[in-house]
Specification:
Layout: H1 2-40
């Protein structure tokens, strides 16, 4: 059971890191879209 808990912890941290990367990417894309909208106006 201990090894299972360890593996699930590793998976969770990988998912958190993946989520953080996606969040950073999404905010960068939104920033670019906002700048494009400002230039368009």
């Amino acid at each position: 059971m201990v090894s299972f808990d360890e593996s699930s912890n590793v998976e969770r941290s990988d998912t958190d890191e993946h989520f953080r990367r996606c969040s950073r990417f999404v905010s960068r894309v939104e920033e670019r879209e906002n700048q494009a909208a400002e230039i368009g106006n």
